Amino acid sequence: MAQQANLQVASRTTRGKGAARSLRREGKVPGVIYGHGREAEPVTVDSSALTRMLVGISAGTTILDVTVDGRAPVKALIREIQRDSLRPADILHLDFYEVRVDEEITLAVPVRLVGVPDGVRNSGGVLDHVLRELEIEVLPSDIPEHVELDVTALTIGHSLFVRDIRIEKARIMNDPDTPICTVVAPRTEEAPAVVEEVATTEPELIRKPKAEDEDETETKA
């Protein structure tokens, strides 16, 4: 069942980067709401209210009742959240997409892996989570918050695929043969290569030892 939340927004007439920076300095986040052939409508959202709403919900799968300037609310999904690359907590812009309760929509839902695989627990393997989101078609009222996949029985070298998942009242759009996760064997450290030492021979000493030279000199004298 889809999560739901309420959000108050205000229409805006100013556009452009300069106007957006001014709004953010005032504690507001610029955004736009569009969908179903309606002209894109620029809006602003109170930054504090938005932050409070986002806590504890899955933004991409939550149906919002968006009220613009006190008008009748419209149901919408957050299609995109743009964040500051240096300060990810700061939201720069929002895209809202209006939905109809009787029309299917396409969206991505997160995949959560549940349990510890047999191959990890008993054989020291590593669980590789390959596909973290599924693309589905579903009515807004039936959007799942996430999809859970039990990986307890997976042994070394075995995988779970898109075809192994069933989502009630939704149609999965991904290729059925796409792997979602795999238990891979533990990596073995390669033994360092043995470098054979090449024996070296000292050059032969041609001249006589110094002591013998001195003895011979004394004899001749």
Description:
The chain has 221 residues and is mainly β. The chain folds into two domains: 3-99, Beta Barrel (Ribosomal Protein L25, Chain P); 106-184, RNA Polymerase Alpha Subunit, Chain A, domain 2. 14% of the residues lie in helices and 39% in strands. It has four helices and 13 strands. A hairpin with a 2-residue loop joins strand 2 (28-35) and strand 3. It is elongated. Residues 198-221 have low confidence and may be disordered.
- The H-level CATH homologous superfamily of the largest domain, spelled out, is Ribosomal Protein L25, Chain P
Indicate the percent of residues in helices.
Answer: 10-25%
Structural class: mainly beta
**Kindly, what is the distance between the CA atoms of the first and last residues, rounded to a whole number of angstroms?**
117 Å
Strand content: 35-45%
From the alpha carbons, calculate the radius of gyration and give it in angstroms. 34 Å
Shape: elongated
What is the count of DSSP helices, taking H or I runs of 4+ residues?
Answer: 4
Query: How many discrete structural domains?
Result: 2
Sketch the topology as an H/E string, one letter per element: EHEEHEEEEHEEEEEEH
| Main sheet specs | 6 strands, mixed, barrel
Low-confidence runs: 198-221
Please identify the top-level CATH class of the largest domain.
Mainly Beta
Order of strands across the biggest sheet? 1-3-2-6-5-4
**Mean pLDDT reading:** 85
- CATH second-level architecture of the largest domain: Beta Barrel
